[in-house]
Amino acid sequence: MKETHFHANGQAPEILLPRQKKILDALLQGKNDLDEIARTISTKREDLMRDIEELKARGLIEVQREEREITVLTEEAKRYLETGLPEERLARLLQKTGTIKRGEILEASKRLGIPFLQDEVQTAITHLARAKAVTFINDALQLSSPENAEQHVSKVRKMLQSIEKGETRSVDIDYLKKRKLVETRKQTKIYLSPTAKLLSLNEMGLIREAEVITELTSEIIESGKWKNAVFKEFDLSVEIPAQPFGKKHPYLEFLDWIREILVSMGFEEMKGPHVELELWNFDALFQAQDHPAREIHDTYFVKGGLLGSVADSELLKRIASVHENGWTTGSRGWGYKWDPRRALRLILRTQTTAVSARTLYSRGEGKYMCFSLDRVFRPENLDAKHSMEFYQLEGIIVGPQVTFRNLLGFFQEMARRLGLGEVKVKPAYFPFTEPSVEGFIKHPSLGWIEVFPGGMFRPEMLSALGLRNVNVAAWGIGIDRIAMTVLGIDDIRLLFAQDLEYIKGSKRPIPQSLITYPGTKNMSGSDRNI
Coiled-coil ranges per the record (predicted)? Predict the structure, then answer.
């Protein structure tokens, strides 16, 4: 940065400072504490650190650092300075109510607009009692000495205000610490002193404030502003730092590989909306309208009471009949009066099985295999294993000869292609499949985790959708948990991490099957940049 101008006689150079002259002015006026200087020029201490280092590098100031312990107010004390000490508020309350029982203090404080927290009541009573400002009558108390209360409150307030200003003289630190109103912290104090060079240049009037110019315009030239400005220099010989190549998030790349595996197995991808009708998310799946999963603690409902619509009245009649009495399926149904308005309520879908239901309804009977890999939403508490928003891999195999063994075979094949190891299965229950199964894989640190739930869609569901002569094997895989195993992580939150260092350092999640599986023999490690 250009910072010196020479006088016409070619003698002593003039120094133009873009921002630091205010710091030097305060220093030359006798203020050497950086905190005091910051207050003087109305800025924050941390905003001056770069300027201090530049002035030091130019030989204009010397810097001394001194570490010391300081006493500061706690957040609780800061709140008390704004809202009043607990004993101060209780004294006001007692002045308005006279005698009051302990158990009625909170209720009275709400009624009179004097805020109180539950744990502040005993604190207030204790300190007013120590100040001999209250008397007790059985379980009640009254303000017996407003003067003592006022003196006590005034004393504590003055001590807190002194600490706030950085003053500790005449302050009972031990008392405030016991009340957890102050705490001790380590702070580095910075002191500045002028060098002989600064004093000399200042005496000759050779230090002036200047504006920094990074772009020269015709207006600056014509106005003459450039004469009293500092021009930022650019060194074009400096090498530009090498930028790393962009890298896709490992989880998104993993999902792309899942799609590639399924497409290679003959599946087509199906799509559906995130905001869904209860009809497709629950009713079409033969899930009763009083099922617990349809309550607010398991489902996100769209505000406003808006309803969707379904043009096919025959579909609604079939679903109603199946729910109420089983219709022609041989089932007894759920035995209740089905409500079409509830089926049309809008929710955030809780499962991609809703996409399967839409696909079966639109494509009807035949032979086809489809999958959906997309997000679902459930009111979960975020932790290492659960998230309120996650991906689900939904799939259906449709055909007259499809059996439960096709489903188990699919789970084994997916586990093999993804390198997940052994799959353990056990019987399960889902409202829309029978038989049903849950498949488990072993995570290195989390142990056995359930990732392969599925089953054969029930006749009650298929008949309502218009399918009578085919079987459907279906699953809704917790793909996030599989991703955790493949990526070698044990916290589901890392799947959505935005930390660039984590993304840069993570391995590419390419399943071994995509390198060695027949048809991809030429995909060597070097070709795939693994």
Answer: 38-83
The answer to whether the Cα torsion of 501, 502, 506, 510 is positive or negative is negative
Beta bridge partners of 231: 213
d(CA 135, CA 98): 11
Whole-number Å distance between alpha carbons of 4 and 102: 74
Q: Do domains 4-67+186-231 and 75-180 have the same CATH topology?
A: yes
Handedness of CA 103, 107, 109, 112 (dihedral sign): negative
Q: Are 358 and 443 in contact (CB under 8 A)?
A: no
Q: Copy the structure tokens of residue 328.
A: 């022609």
Q: What is the C-alpha to C-alpha distance for residues 101 and 121, in angstroms, rounded to an integer?
A: 12
Q: Taking a C-beta distance cutoff of 8 angstroms, is the pair 457, 433 a contact?
A: yes
Evaluate whether the domain defined by 4-67+186-231 bears CATH number 1.10.10.10: yes
Count other Cβ atoms within 10 Å, centred on residue 181: 20
Residue 283, Cβ neighbours under 10 Å: how many? Answer: 27
Q: What contacts 24+ positions apart, CB below 8 Å, involve 120-127? A: 120/86, 120/89, 121/86, 121/90, 123/86, 123/87, 123/179, 124/85, 124/86, 124/87, 124/89, 124/90, 125/90, 127/85, 127/86, 127/87, 127/152
User: pTM score, two decimals?
Assistant: 0.51
Looking at residue 345, what DSSP letter applies? Answer: B
CA 75 to chain centre: 24
What torsion do the CA atoms of 496, 501, 503, 506 make, to the nearest 10 degrees?
-120
CA distance 45 to 31: 14
Cα–Cα distances (Å) from 226 to 10, 12, 37, 155, 220, in that order, read 20, 20, 29, 58, 6
- Residue 307 phi, psi (nearest 5): -115, 150
CATH for 251-272+352-516 (3.30.70.260, 3.30.930.10, 3.30.1330.40, 3.30.450.180): 3.30.930.10
CATH topology of domain 75-180: Arc Repressor Mutant, subunit A (1.10.10)
DSSP 418-450: HT----EEEEEEETTEEEEEEEEEEETTTEEEE
- Per residue in 67-122, pLDDT (tens digit) is 888 888 999 999 999 889 999 999 999 998 888 988 888 888 888 888 888 888 88
Q: Could you read off the pLDDT of 220-264 as tens digits, one per residue?
A: 888 887 777 767 666 677 777 766 667 778 888 888 888 988 998
Distance CA 524, CA 530 (A): 9
Provide the residue ranges of all domains of the chain, joining segments of one domain with +.
4-67+186-231, 75-180, 251-272+352-516
Partners of 407 in the β-ladder: none
